[in-house]
Amino acid sequence: MWSICKKELAQFFSNLTGYIAIVLFLLVNGVFLFMLPDSSIFEYGYASLDKFFELAPWVLLFLVPAITMRSFSDEFRGGTFEILKTKPLTSAQITTGKYVAVLIVLVFVIIPTFIYIITISSLSASGGIDKGGIIGSYIGLFLLAAVFAAISLCCSSFTSNAVVAFLVSAFVCLLLYFGFNALSNLPVFQGNADYYIEMLGIDFHYRSISRAVLDSRDVVYFFSIIFLSLLITVKNLQKR
User: Fold this and answer.
1) What is the overall mean pLDDT for the chain?
2) For residue range 116-143, what is the model confidence (pLDDT) as tens digits?
3) What is the pLDDT, as a whole number, of residue 196?
4) Is residue 160 within 8 Å of 73, Cβ to Cβ?
5) What are the CA-CA distances from residue 68 to residues 6, 24, 200 (Å)?
6) Distances in Å between the alpha carbon of 170 and those of 27, 136, 235?
7) Is the pLDDT confidence value at 93 over 60?
8) DSSP string, 87-139
């Protein structure tokens, strides 16, 4: 597993792709949070990173599929997957190795945003921010990124075309993140099943953790999607 993980990390950071992903995430968030007046933290009036945690999921929704789209599709297209299968590695080890590599990349993507905490804290009139809320929001953000990574990795295992893998991954992530929330707002569900439909979506559980309330139901929800996505990936690889 670790050999696969090291190979993926070396491949990701051996060219500009990895560094562009990190810079792009910081750049997009920085423009929206500090430059555009409608979403600027300075215009918000409070020492809070709520704007960042509202925007970051939408950036990750496209960034994570872009990171993972070549994970399996390039292996299939280049014929290297057959070479991988000749090594003493199971499909589960290959999947886990690639998934852990993606998580490590996402950690490198998220860690530089800690500078936002220092910036907002230094600009605060009271000299501090809600640390509990910030910690909860970062836990939720990492779990959200981990779910997107598992879903995108799963989608990549179905095709040898990286562009198709990206598009399908982004669509599925969008559907699970926002689709159930939009469906629950339909008039036909109001007052009846709207709450339960909204609970099926990722956004509901992400917002719950972001309130610094670590509910076991939210954690179980995230890990269930991750486990199911990786299980489908493993089964798909075994068929090949």
Assistant:
1) 82
2) 877 777 766 555 666 777 888 888 899 9
3) 80
4) yes
5) 15, 16, 24
6) 20, 25, 22
7) yes
8) SS--HHHHHHHHHHHHHHHHHHHHGGGHHHHHHHHHH-SSS---HHHHHHHHH
Please state, in angstroms and rounded to a whole number, the distance separating the CA atoms of residues 68 and 52.
23
pLDDT tens digits along 43-80: 665 656 778 888 888 889 989 998 888 888 877 887 77
pLDDT confidence of 237, banded at 50, 70, 90?
A: confident
In this structure, of 43-52, 103-112, 194-203, the range with the lowest mean pLDDT score is 43-52
Q: Which domain holds residue 188?
A: 2-239
Residue 79's alpha-carbon distances to 72, 73, 76, 147, in angstroms, are 10, 10, 5, 28
Give the distance, in angstroms, between the CA of residue 18 and the centroid of all CA atoms in the same chain.
15
Q: Dihedral sign, CA of 147, 150, 153, 159?
A: negative
* Separation between Cα atoms, residue 240 and residue 238, nearest integer Å: 5
Determine the Cα–Cα distance for residues 172 and 97; give it in Å rounded to an integer: 23
For the stretch 10-27, pLDDT in tens is 777 777 777 787 888 888
Cα–Cα separations (whole angstroms), residue 164 to 29, 149, 169, 191, 212: 26, 16, 8, 39, 37
* Contact predicate 65/149, CB 8 Å: no
Distance, CA of 49 to CA of 116 (rounded, Å):
8
CA distance 33 to 50: 10
Cα(100)–Cα(4) distance, rounded to whole angstroms? 9
